[in-house]
Amino acid sequence: MNTLDPASARPDYASLQQAAEWFAVLSSGTATEQQRQHWQSWLDARAEHRNAWARVESINQRVDTLGTAMDQHTAASALQTATKTVRMRRRTLGTLGAILALLLGGKLIHGLPPVRHTLAAWRADYRTGIGEQFSETLADGSHLWLDTDSAADVRYDGQLRRIILHGGALLVRTAPDTARRPLVVDTPHGRLLALGTWFSVRHNDGHIHLSVFEGTVEIQPAATGAATQRVAAGQQASFTRDASGPLQPLVQPQPQWQDGLLIADEMPLAEFLAELGRYRRGHLGCAPAVAHLKVVGAYPLHDTDRALELLATALPLRIRRTLPWWVTLEAR
Question: Which of 82, 150, 251, 268 has the fewest beta carbons under 10 Å from its own?
């Protein structure tokens, strides 16, 4: 396996496409020795090629890890059960420990999405796989939705209604509590205190993003002495352990993903594909020449291939499938 060359950590679009094409050739089972030699020459020619090849290998491994690779182990059925959107506390810790031991022993964890790197996520009350969503009415009447590739625990006691987001995104519509217990969402970067509200929380790389659709939510960053910030309906903000970012108006007045839709209103194509790509395995991207095109409309999240077909009809684009898990959009 190749590793990233520090001389060029970000391979360009052309190098990535060439790497994907070479991967398709070499994995076809019909590659000739001459083709292998040409691939090696291409790989040795530039650091960008080596980084692109490492990127393609990483994505392939990530796709295979929960697919073909797991089919080779007797733990496959247990893992499939463990990833369903049900209460994980009903599974024994021994079973989960055995699954994790098998995964780690076989080095299958490498390259998986961050939510799957933690034991807490594996043991979560609720979790979803890539492309899955889930909803549940909680004991107090509040409603919880989980987005794709997410994990959360629910901990209610006599003093507090607590939801713990381990990764991914959730949406909460709170209900009045007869015991007057506060409802909070805890994240790795701090706590969110709901003040009679409807809001979503998303765990991004390095920060948490909050969107408030009704009521008010108070951000309480985890660092000692960090200032709190209240976010009202129609506002959004990001925060880290140390501080909250500036308040911004919501782009959408209400969430859409819980209805299985990705709503775009003049959204740049590159941004649209990055969001749609969260709901499918593998690589989804576009050529730089079309990255600026504006996307408008409602697209299904539960059928991303259909969403791409609709997109290619609405815009002058063609879908290029170099591999089943490597899809790019280019000018038509």
Answer: 251
DSSP H or E run through 26: helix 13-26
pTM, rounded to two decimals = 0.74
Q: Does any domain span residue 124?
A: no
- Whether residues 281 and 175 share a domain: the answer is no
325: phi > 0 → left, psi -120 to 50 → alpha, else beta; which?
alpha
Query: How many distinct structural domains can be found in the chain?
Result: 4
The order of strands in the sheet holding 326-331 is 283-286, 326-331, 317-323
Token pair in block for residue 21: 């094409």
Residue 277 and residue 199 share a domain: no
Q: Residue 9 pLDDT > 90, yes or no?
A: no
Average pLDDT over residues 170-176: 96
Nearest to 218 by CA among 251, 194, 237: 194
Pairing of strands 326-331, 134-137: unpaired
pLDDT at position 186 is 97
Higher pLDDT pick, 104 / 38: 38
Q: Which spans in 28-86 are helix H?
A: 33-45, 47-65, 68-71, 76-82
Residue 102 belongs to domain spanning: 68-112
Q: Buried b vs exposed e over 163-186: b needs ≥16 C-beta within 10 Å?
A: bbbbbbbbbbbbbebeeeeebbbb
What is the band of 286 on the pLDDT scale with cuts at 50, 70, 90?
very high
